[in-house]
Amino acid sequence: MSFLTIYNNESAGVALIPVMPYGEFRKANLDLMTDHPERHCLLYFGYHEGGHIKLVCCIADDRNHNILVSSALAEQDSALESFSSVNFNFEKFERVLNESFGLNYSDHPWLKPARYAENRFDKKLSMYDYPFFRIDSEELHEVGVGPVHAGIIEPGHFRFVCKGEQILHLEIQLGYQHRGIENLFLEKKKAIQRIVLSESIAGDSVAGHASSYAFLAEALSGVKQQREVLFARTLAQELERIAVHTGDLSALCTDIAYQLGSAVFGRLRTPVINFMQEWCGNRLGKGLIRPGYNAYAFNNELADRLNSVLDNFEPDFIEMNREVSKLPSALSRFERTGALSYEQLLSIGTVGMAARMNALERDIRVSHPYGLYPELDHKPVIKHHGDVYSRVQIRKEETLQSIAYVRKLISSLPDPAGEASLNPKPDSFAISMNEGWRGETCHAAITDSDGEIKVYRVKDPSFHNWLALALAVRYNEISDFPVCNKSFNLSYCGHDL
Question: What pLDDT, on the 0 to 100 scale, is given for residue 9?
Fold first, then answer.
């Protein structure tokens, strides 16, 4: 079977993507992933082309560090055999295709809506018609949480089926705040509008999504990134990782009523995000990353200031983690809670930190390297129990690892770079991914004959990982749901787009 083979942050002529009959297309992509745990579905999307629906499938090969791309044409009224009946990695991608284009599948396990997009194919479907899984039994009861939460959180509904206090099934309904992000990338024509849009996809992943858009825009224009640009993006992503992991450790301590841990980790997060404001004027890093150039030079004064922040941060962070790890009441809530097996993680296509919690090594910094990560000789943090405590340990160890990376980066500052002009090539396809703190963040685009973007797709790692949360809480006590939920800390808006 023929595929277009491209690499991360690369572009190619869209005509080079082979077009197969649907049956051959389905078999070829499923065969790619059979008995190959190093491969997973990076992106599977569709768009209107010449009266047909063109399907494009991108399989990431982590061992060979490339992406295998193929396509097929489908008709709206056809009943297709699903990928998901054979490999569950594809189930949500096919649900989006059904919702967006009306594609029907004869054997999809459960063809329910994914996002309730405003531009959905069937306007009769609404949030109120959502087909929840039901179990009729006098011994079982349902518990609903959301979509309006007691805390400051985005809208999502969690429907539990419980036997007493034990969770037998959790179904997560999202899509309440669909903003039409992908269509806005087509409506906004200027690069500055699009980079601001990318920064707004998920507020806790500004560096991750902005970097993906910037790399993508540069790939479409054939721009080779200068070292100062790569330095700023790599540094921003690692600072974002430190800040969010530390904040999550605070929230996890809050969920188990360990107020000392909550207060200390919460305090430690603040100087890190405050440093981002010193660097670029925004605590979340908005305005920092720009395609083709570096908006805010990093100088020796900032390096000294950041070293000082980390000098104060690191010993308190280590000490607080030491206290948590020897506290019986904390360990009783973290260990063996919300556990998933390697086989479960592989079967549903989990990515990022949620995959690495039980031996599934998925880390774009190694598998599809970008930025200055090749120079850092990155080694993923891997755990083997798949429980809340594994996710706590990953946050701790990745934070310390990121501190070491940041110190190495700022020990030798790059020379100032100029600004590269962006002129997207016509009839091109490009794809960009990076390892945000949650995991694999991906943007892809196709340009028309004038070089204008005509298709834009975004994938946040939460798109893959929400199902992992639903499976992790099975047979746990419902009182453990908050700590399970926060241990993943998935994005509602990153999923809803």
Answer: 96
CA distance 127 to 147: 11
- Is the bond leading into 374 cis (omega within 30 degrees of zero)? no
**CA 165/CA 186 separation, integer angstroms:** 48
Give the DSSP H/E element, type plus range, for residue 159: strand 157-163
C-alpha–C-alpha distance, residues 111 and 495, integer Å: 17
CA neighbours within 13 Å on the CB side: how many for 165?
5
What is the gyration radius of the CA atoms in the chain, in angstroms? 22
Eight-state DSSP code of residue 413: P
Report the chain (497 residues): mean pLDDT per 10 consecutive residues.
91 96 96 95 95 96 97 88 95 94 91 82 80 88 83 83 95 88 93 94 95 96 93 97 98 96 97 97 96 94 97 98 96 96 96 96 97 95 97 98 98 90 95 96 97 96 96 95 95 90
Question: Burial level of 480, CB count in 10 A (0-12/13-18/19+)?
Answer: buried
Give dist(CA 294, CA 387) in Å, integer: 40
The answer to whether 264 touches 316, Cβ cutoff 8 Å, is: yes
pLDDT of residue 1: 60
User: Residue written as tokens 């592989």?
Assistant: 346
The first and second tokens of residue 90, run together, are 């594809």
DSSP 3-state assignment of 266? helix
Closest CA to 456 of 212, 236, 234, 250: 212
What is the number of alpha carbons within 13 Å of residue 99 lying toward its C-beta? 23
Got the DSSP string for 218-260?
A: HHHHTPPPPHHHHHHHHHHHHHHHHHHHHHHHHHHHHHTT-HH
Give burial (CB, 10 Å; 0-12/13-18/19+) of 35.
Answer: exposed
pTM reported for the whole predicted model: 0.95
Residue 144, classed as helix, strand or coil, is: strand
Instruction: Write out the two tokens for 444.
Output: 């892809």
156, 492 Cβ separation under 8 angstroms:
yes
Q: DSSP secondary structure string, 29-61?
A: HHHHHTT-TTEEEEEEEEEEETTEEEEEEEEEE
